[in-house]
Amino acid sequence: MDNQKKYWVGLSHVKGLGPVRFERLLDYFGDIEAIWQTSPATLRELKLPEKVISNFLKVRASFDLDQILSEYQSKNISVLTWQEDAYPQRLRNIPASPPVLYLNGELRPEDRWSVGVVGTRKVTQYGRQVTEEICNTLASQGITIVSGLARGVDTIAHKAALEAGGRTLAILGCGVDRIYPAENHALAHQIVKNGAMISDYVPGTPPDGANFPPRNRIISGLTMATIVIEAGERSGALITARNAVEQGKEVFAVPGPIYAPLSKGPNRLIQEGAHPLLSAKDVLEVLDLELIEQKQEVQTVLPADAFEVTLYEALKYEPLHIDEIKNKVNMPINKVSATLTMMELKGLVKQVGKMRYMVIKEMSSGYNAK
To answer: Which among 168, 150, 166 is positioned nearest to 106, based on CA atoms?
Structure first.
């Protein structure tokens, strides 16, 4: 993969080659290097727009890919692609997931337990207090706080997570080597030591208003749920919430006075079905994260066996009642019940209704039925 990574980087510099076109090319060629080496005629046969083909040829002619990777390494920028095990599975499963992520810092396995926290840049004292309390509590429980490093709610969320000794991820609308806003430079440095700065924009990309709405899908895509603190009726935070709904994620919103401009967004979300957020406990209960420490411990000390893999495969495509599971795997009910309990603690499955179970997390490459 390391030998191939430079081609992913090269293609990520091609303007107009978004996730949908990228995946179509990868499906056609089956190899990232083959895409990089292909002829303009083949790209035309595949119906790529002439502007994209022109951009591709310019990048290919002018880029020294080995040199670019070396420059990124010197800046402590790492590259993560679709085809790597370390690429977050939750993010990979969303529509238009970014083929390439650029990171300053690191993603860790425990970041799978994460929530997005978004809201207005013009936060009120009420919004500040709620953000600090919610993020501090969740971070102290081992939940990673994901936000966008913007002024207001984002900045408060990152700081509260760090002050609680927790982890936080900042998803940027620019390159990871461009800190925006500038006053968050020191905060960004702390995030890198206790999480990561992440972007699907290539290093060097300046902040631009058009970049921020698309990056919101990454905030919601990485996380188990999105929390909206304060937001006007046309806030970018509501884009993140809509993305979360489309991705099948939970949405929480902090209620506020009906006449307060910055409560109109959250109040509308609640009206549309979002969970009213009255305390951090609401998030822990809905996401079944009250036993997160036990889940982390179980994942560490109890490796999966072949039977867990069998149950996982049985539940992979639809929720099933425990009796249906027993019949499907042809195993004693007590064995099925005990194993499902352990898989719940690991965050692999959850109950949805009375004795019905469903998969909520992809198995890592360490799970093996052999």
So the answer is: 168
Report d(CA 5, CA 367) in Å as an integer. 25
User: What radius of gyration, in Å, describes the C-alpha atoms of the chain?
Assistant: 22
Rounded CA gap, 188 and 167, in Å? 13
Give the Cα-Cα-Cα angle 164, 292, 288 (nearest 5 degrees).
Answer: 115
* Residue matched to tokens 């188990």: 224
Instruction: Decide: 103 and 88 in contact? Cβ < 8 Å.
Output: no
Instruction: Give residue-wise pLDDT tens across range 160-180.
Output: 999 999 999 999 999 999 999
Cβ 133 vs Cβ 117: under 8 Å: no
Angle at 167 between CA 166 and CA 170, to 5 degrees: 140
Using alpha carbons, list the distances in angstroms from residue 2 to 9, 206, 303.
11, 27, 28
Q: How many CB atoms lie within 10 A of CB 350?
A: 17
pTM reported for the whole predicted model: 0.80
